[in-house]
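Chapter summary example.
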Amino acid sequence: MFKALQLILALSILVFIHELGHFMWARIFKVGVEKFYMFFDTPQFALLRWNKTGLYLCNLKVSEKANPSDTEYGIGWIPLGGYCAIAGMVDETHSADDIKDMQGDNLFAKKGKFAQFMIMVGGVLNNLILAVIIYIGMSWYWGKDVVRLTDLPYGLTYSEYAHSIGLQEGDEIVAVDGKEVDLSTLHSRLLLANDVTVNRHGSTQVIALPDTMGQVFLRDPLQLELFATPFLPFVIDSVAADSPAEKAGFLAGDSLALPSHTMTLLLQDNAGKTLDLDFYRADSLMHTSITLGEDGMMGVFKRNFMAGRSTHIDYSFLEAIPAGIQRGWTMLYNYVRQFKLVFTKEGAQSLGGFGTMGSIFPESWQWLAFWSMTAFFSVALAFMNILPIPGLDGGHIFILLIEAIIRRPISDKAKERAQYVGMGLIIALMVYVNANDIWKFLIKPFIG
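The structure predicted for these 448 residues follows.
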């Protein structure tokens, strides 16, 4: 529930800013805005309405103070978005029959193509600007912590899949697709990488990566997580009283014969079972058996070999501006590149709806995490809205471009039919991605 509330708050901010973009440009070009709503309402009910007849709360009139403008402002009761009803425009709020008898110079159809274009693209622009502003603020307030690959105490270790495509233990990753990476950006860059440059025994080698690697990662996200990880020994820092580790005879300072990431997976896969483990005590190799708890825990604290390995970068306000712009551009660039994976079997299966979006948020309130997720969703919303699908901003822009090319308007009836098709596609996609969530979160965990 707490994650859901964070998601609703983030989406509310994004939808408001998006619709405000349409509203602002409509006002600039003197186009009428009939309604400006956060969330969706119905003709019969809204949580809040303010129009020329007064202020209404849940349809009950609470104030006679009239709205001086022609726009009705309100908050709907269906928290799935919001809308800005533009006068004289065929969209989800107006049919062709609704606008055929509209008169006045403030109609959308009466304005030039540039004005129409700016009104339609205004929401996307606002979401991109918001993301950049958030990234600037994050850079200025929190700075940035970077773990350079060269700062890892024992370098990287590679998964079996990484070995199969040419990487070897001891390889130092220098760049991905010719660009330097750090630990926080390594995995996202690998998702669609063409090659990786490594330092192998003092010589530089470029390893070509298979075109299907992104699909492998989508099919099994663990493959991406384990592809290249810091090599960290599993050294016991302390042992909890009456724990499986204490009963097995482990002491502080003991070092398991397997690296930390391998031990973590081994423990997870053998919860409640008995394991035979080799470990080092001083210079002696020893052996013991341990019966794990049902949670797969040994009851130890590991020594933290990553402490102090990150480099903190502080930005002045002026330095934060280019840093925020760069981060916003990088996020958009990576999102656009990864979008092609949606059209693969693995990509389609990995799509998620509100459940997946909500699961990304932490279980406790963290300002940095909240604004980071909000900025990411703002970029994603901007990109998805610019797609040339009727019903989305990109669909309206696509129709405007066709009208500009053929130099005559497309009939309102044709626009209305396209709107129905587009809305049908959008609803079908929403059903599909949320059905994926139901499968992933509510069904699959119980059937294995």
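To summarize the output: The longest helix spans residues 412-447.
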